Amino acid sequence: MVEKIKKNTISRPESKAPRESGIELLRILSAVMVVTLHFNSICFNSAQHGTLNYGVMMMSEAVCICAVNLFIIISGYFMCKTNTRNIMKIIELVCLMLVIREAVCIIQSMYNGGINIRELIVNLIPNDYFVILYCVLFLISPYINRLLDLLDEKELNRLVFRLVVIFGIWNVLVQLLNEFTGREWLGLSTVGYEGSERGFTIVNFIVMYIVGSWIRRNHIDEKINIKQIIIGLIFIYLCLFGWSLGNDYFSQFGIRSAWCYYNPLVQAEAVLVFCLFRKIKFKSKSINYIAGSAFTCYLIHTNILLRFLLVWLLEWQSGRFGFFLPEKCLDSWEKKQRICGIEKTIRLESFMSLL
Q1: Is the pLDDT of residue 351 over 80?
Q2: What is the Cα–Cα distance from 281 to 331, expressed in whole angstroms?
Q3: For position 295, what pLDDT does the model report?
């Protein structure tokens, strides 16, 4: 058993390995994918069903839906090399988020004619699910690494398989049951009483972290070739596209099981995309430099693009320029708020408080 542990344990060198530009490029593309997903979520009901625009939006969703899982897989792949964690990175991350939020709030207040002190204070609450969950994963990941060190290759394969079945396949089946029966079955999910929350949970983060570590420890990226990866991705894209069309008729509460992060197809898509970029070998200082700002771009777009710019476009629609898209985007937001149980009409004055 000791020999198995030594064989499967990854050395943890003190020297910092050079950054791989292929993976850094993937970080950049993942950030672009997240922006695409957020735009789609706002304008999901703006395109008419059966039109070219609707088909393009569905396909872009199928291609980009793996973005969050990709970020976590990248972390699992590289962070399993070391059990040292710098707490200052978490503090810097949260501070960066708060600085961006405060800056956007000040700009918005000036645009509206005055500084809103209450809004400035409220924005100091770091209510960003990805930042919070990633910080938690960052803190507990050394203990996950130590537990995985105890497993040999076959045992790690069994663990990943069971995690996918328990937290992926089972929860997708529960969601499909919800959609087919037209009601929400509480207490069936393996994540929580009220369901699996589309994968926006620490459970999915831990599963994908272990998958990233599994890829590295068992050399999964070396065992499949580019042809297999391309064929697999095309198959998954088509399956997710067709699945999403089926959701148009059976979707419960507007939630689409095709786009849940715990969907095994979405998880497999993330694994294949990561393995594809692992095979892209090149060095670029520019790519590496830009990739360092990928997470900052995520924070900026969630605060500026979806918070300030969208409201400006809504005002654009309301009288001065006659732009057609934001009105449909607002309809989509109204539906989402009704889904969450908020029984009130969204007006421009209250829109920012709901973001």
Answers
A1: no
A2: 45
A3: 78
b/e map 206-231, b = 16+ CB within 10 Å: bbbbbbbbbbbbbebbeeeeeeebee
Task: Look at residue 305 in the predicted model and tell me its pLDDT.
Answer: 60
Tokens of 287: 């790519």
Q: What is the SS3 assignment for 183?
A: coil
Residue 280 — φ and ψ, nearest 5°? -90, 105
Mean pLDDT in residue range 289-318: 65
C-beta separation of 260 from 175 below 8 A:
yes
| Nearest C-alpha neighbor of 313 from the set 36, 32, 31, 39 | 39
φ, ψ for residue 142, nearest 5 deg: -60, -35
Q: Which token pair is 170?
A: 């089972």
What is the model's pLDDT at position 330? 42
Per cent of the chain over pLDDT 70 is: 76
Please state, as a whole number, how many other Cβ atoms lie within 10 Å of the Cβ of residue 14.
6
CB atoms within 10 A of CB 50: 10
